[in-house]
């Protein structure tokens, strides 16, 4: 009996020890039998695996041959790789180009000719209506006539790359807007699904006439706003056209045709770069937003444009005045001698008027200063300023400090973030 194990001494921990030992011996025997069976079958398993490995290439080859013969393989390739071809979006498309000398097909460096080489095999038809020296309005006239005479040329994609000659002639933004409205209305009537791309020009050193005042940045800002408002795709070539930049000697030598101060037209070497860039723009269909940059308009140009309309009471200092027209905001510095007829009057004195492209979206209030800045002389003084909704520049004749004067030098800055020409999304508050 287990209870009497080692009697008269009793150890209850050893009551079932013999039973446990027996069970462990049985487990050991069973495990060894399993190991022996595995060892016995391993050669057979290895043989089967080796045979399978040898059969795989033959079977794969037979399967691929079968797929090739019945068309399955071709379908798979087209499905997987054909869909990755970004050029497929150009297939069966008609593209119409409105432009000037930068796109004229008669020029040896025409990007359009290079573009056509890149889309060979896609049944893509390119109609180049660009003509050297044309403004946007002149290009629209040609386009309108072409659509009337040749309805088969109705575009799926319309590229509008005008502006160089409009800048040269200082075409007003109002006139440009009317021309773009005509283009938009024409497209809506012949193909509402047409994708319209509105390009700015790239960087250049174009020599402009002395009466020039509207900077390129004003045109490109207006183009960007118009595209947003009307569902067009804006492409900021000025900021993002690849590598081309007249600020560097190498760029001027490599990519600009002119070897003087204009630096407007690109070289034959650049046409391939430009064509690939434009092709990528069309294939992606994504806009290239307006970049952050600015241009300076000097006081002499401001004076030539007639901004200072009341020189009897305000004589501008043309060296101290300028416009810094940026794509994000505009800063206008006005400096000069203020000599109002009545220094005790409560009425603002109109000293000038901003041109249409500089009129803010809302009235701007500010201060003019004497002392602590340009032309500081005498006691510090501040004067109220106002830019009215029509662009009128106004200065209050009374100094806020009560300082008496007959003539004083003042300066003030106008910061404009929203222009009247900007697209303003209307909000309804319920």
Question: Could you walk me through the main structural features you see in this protein, from its secondary elements to its overall organization?
Answer:
With 430 residues, the protein is of the alpha/beta class. The protein folds into 2 domains: 87-291, Rossmann fold (3-Layer(aba) Sandwich); 296-416, Immunoglobulin-like, CATH 2.60.40.1830. It is 37% helix and 18% strand. The protein is built from 11 helices and 14 strands. It has helices spanning 17-70, 72-80, 111-118, 136-149, 164-168, 173-190, 216-230, 237-240, 249-255, 268-284, 299-304, and strands at 94-99, 125-128, 157-161, 195-199, 233-235, 294-298, 314-316, 322-326, 330-338, 349-353, 364-370, 381-387, 392-395, 408-416. The strands form 3 sheets. Strands 2-1-3-4-5 form a 5-stranded parallel sheet, covered by helices on one side. Strands 6, 7, 8, 9 and 14 form a 5-stranded antiparallel sheet that branches. Strands 10-13-12-11 form a 4-stranded antiparallel sheet, with no helix packed on it. α3 (111-118) packs across α10 (268-284) and α4 (136-149) packs parallel to α6. The protein is elongated and about 125 Å long. The N and C termini lie far apart (97 Å). Mean pLDDT is 85; it is low at 372-376.
Order of helices and strands: HHEHEHEHHEHEHHHEHEEEEEEEE
Low-pLDDT residue spans: 372-376
What is the CATH T-level topology of the largest domain? Rossmann fold
The quaternary structure here is single chain
* N-to-C CA distance: 97 Å
Shape: elongated
Task: Enumerate how many helices there are, as a single number.
Answer: 11
Quickly give the structural class. Answer: alpha/beta
The major beta sheet can be summarized as: 5 strands, parallel
Radius of gyration: 40 Å
Count of DSSP strands: 14
- Average pLDDT figure: 85
Helix content: 25-40%
Beta-strand residue percentage: 15-25%
Strand numbers in spatial order across the main sheet: 2-1-3-4-5
Please identify which CATH superfamily of the largest domain we are dealing with. Answer: SGNH hydrolase
């Amino acid at each position: 009996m287990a209870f009497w194990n080692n009697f008269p001494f009793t150890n209850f921990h050893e009551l079932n020890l013999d039973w446990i030992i027996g069970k462990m011996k049985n487990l050991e025997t069973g495990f060894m039998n399993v190991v022996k069976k595995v060892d016995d079958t391993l050669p057979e398993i290895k043989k089967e695996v080796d045979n399978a490995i040898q059969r795989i290439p033959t079977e794969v080859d037979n399967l691929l041959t079968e797929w090739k013969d019945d068309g399955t393989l071709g379908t798979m390739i087209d499905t997987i790789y054909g869909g990755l071809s970004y050029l497929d979006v150009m297939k069966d498309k008609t593209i119409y180009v409105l432009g000037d000398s930068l796109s004229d097909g008669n020029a040896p460096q025409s990007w359009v000719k290079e573009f056509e080489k890149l889309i060979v095999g896609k049944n893509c038809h390119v109609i180049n209506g660009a003509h050297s020296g044309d403004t946007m309005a002149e290009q629209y006239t040609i386009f309108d006539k072409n659509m009337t005479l040749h309805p088969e040329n109705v575009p799926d994609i319309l590229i509008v790359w005008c502006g160089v000659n409009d800048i040269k002639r200082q075409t007003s933004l109002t006139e440009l807007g009317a021309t773009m409205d005509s283009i938009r209305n024409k497209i809506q009537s012949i193909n509402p699904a047409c994708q319209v791309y509105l390009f700015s020009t790239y960087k250049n050193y174009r020599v402009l006439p002395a009466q020039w005042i509207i900077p390129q940045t004003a045109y490109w800002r207006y183009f960007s706003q118009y595209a947003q408002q009307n569902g067009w795709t804006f492409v900021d070539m000025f900021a993002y056209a690849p590598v081309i930049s007249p600020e560097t000697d190498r760029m001027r030598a490599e990519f600009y045709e002119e070897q003087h101060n204009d630096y407007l037209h690109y070289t034959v070497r650049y046409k391939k770069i430009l064509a690939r860039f434009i092709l990528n723009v069309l294939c992606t269909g994504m806009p290239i937003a307006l970049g952050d940059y600015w241009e300076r308009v000097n006081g002499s140009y401001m004076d030539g444009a007639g901004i200072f309309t009341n020189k009897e009471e305000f004589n501008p200092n043309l060296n101290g005045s300028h416009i810094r027209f940026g794509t994000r905001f505009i800063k206008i510095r006005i400096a000069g001698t203020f000599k109002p007829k009545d220094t005790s009057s409560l009425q603002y004195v109109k000293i000038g008027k901003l041109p249409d492209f500089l009129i803010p979206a809302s009235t701007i209030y500010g201060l003019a200063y004497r002392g602590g800045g340009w032309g500081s002389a005498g006691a510090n003084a501040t004067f109220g300023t106002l830019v009215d909704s029509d662009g009128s520049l106004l200065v209050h004749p009374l100094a806020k400090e009560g300082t008496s004067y007959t003539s004083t030098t003042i300066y003030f800055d106008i910061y404009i973030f929203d222009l009247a020409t900007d697209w303003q999304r209307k909000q309804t508050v319920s």
